[in-house]
Amino acid sequence: MSTLVLLRHGQSQWNLENRFTGWTDVPLTERGKADAVRTAEALRDLHFDVGYTSKLKRAADTLTIILDHLKQNEIPAVADAALNERHYGDLQGLNKAETAAKYGQEQVTLWRRSYATPPPNGESIADVAKRVLPFFEAKILPEVWAGKNVIVSASGNSLRPILQVLDHLDNDTTASMDVGLCTPYIYHYEGKKMTKKEVREVPGIVTKGASQTEARVEEGRV
Does 168 qualify as catalytic in the annotation? Predict the structure, then answer.
């Protein structure tokens, strides 16, 4: 038996500021770091053999915090740009509310929640799938099939194509689904056969990005 754990990084500074982040390498907030510790506590029943993450420090630091807290930091951790967040092109760094006011909510929703429509000079989810899935199928999945417990810390839009394949989702469902911050999506395998899936609740974490007001942080507003 083996286990695959997929999780989105903890809250980043630009999640907090409600900005399009993409490939901009922003750090975790203090809340994001604390939530990674909470997630580690929720994963205490698992011992991992290998970890994977992106080249972005918000994902890499989330993985490091979790493994350090579990005292499993001796395992190999592979960082690869194939797992990087979706590139948001001209929208990177812009506040989401201000962007909606400028371009219209309908257009911004199309950029964010359609499967194949990219933002200006950026990537669509379909584009992200073209780099994420070959890496997942060539590197990560064979480790799971070989009986290893694997943890993957990445970003919401780089996890969507993986979740789509594992959960047999259509494009529209994949594009519109919420992937919670620091929330473990856990898949149990016997050989190549998936036997069980769970989305493990982590008490007290912020599961969505938020604006800078404390009330909105508690609401977890994207």
Answer: no
Catalytic, 47? Answer no
- pLDDT, position 217: 41
In our burial notation (b when 16+ CB lie closer than 10 A, e otherwise), range 99-129 reads bbeebeeeebeebbebbeebbeebbbbbbbb
What is the band of 211 on the pLDDT scale with cuts at 50, 70, 90? Answer: very low
Residues 74, 85, 98, 214: which is the catalytic one? 85
Q: Domains in the chain and their CATH numbers? A: 2-219 (3.40.50.1240)
* Set 9, 30, 47, 219: catalytic member: 9
Cα dihedral value 71, 76, 77, 81, nearest 10: 180
**Are 43 and 63 contacting, i.e. CB atoms less than 8 angstroms apart?**
no
